[in-house]
Amino acid sequence: MTVHILPRSDTLGSEPTRSLHSALVVDDHPLFCDALSMTLKAVAGIGRIETADRLDSAIARLEQGPMPDVVVLDLNLPDVDGLDGLIRLKSVVGLVPVVVVSSLADNRVISAALRAGASGFVPKHSHRDVFRAAFDAIRRGHAYHPDGYVPQHDPKAPASQREDAVARLALLTRQQARILQLICEGKLNKQIAFDLTIAETTVKAHVTAIMRKLGVQSRTQAVLIARGASFDSLMPEGD
Fold this sequence. Notes:
Elements: E1 4-6, E2 22-26, H1 30-43, E3 48-52, H2 55-64, E4 70-73, H3 84-93, E5 98-102, H4 107-115, E6 120-123, H5 128-139, E7 143-145, H6 161-169, H7 174-184, H8 189-196, H9 200-214, H10 219-227
Parallel strand pairs: 2-3, 2-4, 4-5, 5-6
Antiparallel strand pairs: 1-7
Helix pairs in contact: 2-3, 3-7, 7-9, 7-10, 8-9, 9-10
C-alpha cells in the first residue's frame, strides 16, 4: 500500500504535533458508526468517541464543548447539501482537523473536500491499514488522501466555477453559513430572525456580509454560489 501525505503549510515543529484522544463521528448509519468507532479505537488509539447522525446535532454538541481532538464526517447527511456541511463544520471547529469518510470517493469530490478544509479523505469501506495511515498523518500535522487519488486542480490554471464556489463559501462564519442555508431554503429575513432568535436587522447585516464575501449582488446569486458546491456538480456524468 502506498501512503500519500500532503504537507500542510500550517504544520509547525517536529513530529508528532497533535494528540488524538477523542473524536466526534458524524454519520447517519448507526452500524457504520459502531464499526468506525471500533476501528478508530483499534488503529488510532482514540479512546473517547461520540456520534451524531445529523450535522445540526453535531454542531449543537460542538457548541456545548469541549471540542474533540478530531471530527470524522460523512458528506452525505440528511440535513446538508453537498459540501456545505463540511464548510459549516469547519467554521465551528476552527483548527480541529476534520477527516471526511465517504463512499463518494471520486477524485473531484476528494479534491473539493480538501480545498474546503478537510484534513484528510478516506473512502468509506477502506481497510484498517488505510485508516491507520490517515490518522497517523493527521497526528503528524499532515493532510491525507487515499492511494490512487489524482488531484483535480492545476495551480497554474484558472479556478473552475465549482472551485471558486467552494473557496468563497469557506470565507463565511458559522452564523453566516447557517443564514445562507436558510436563504437556500427560501426563507425571508423575518423568518430567519425567528428561527435563529436574533434581530431582523442582524440578519440583514449578515446577508450583506454574505453577499460581499461571495461577490454577489442578490440573494438569488448567493443561492447559486451555494449550489455550485453540491454533489451534482462534482460527480462524473453517468454515475
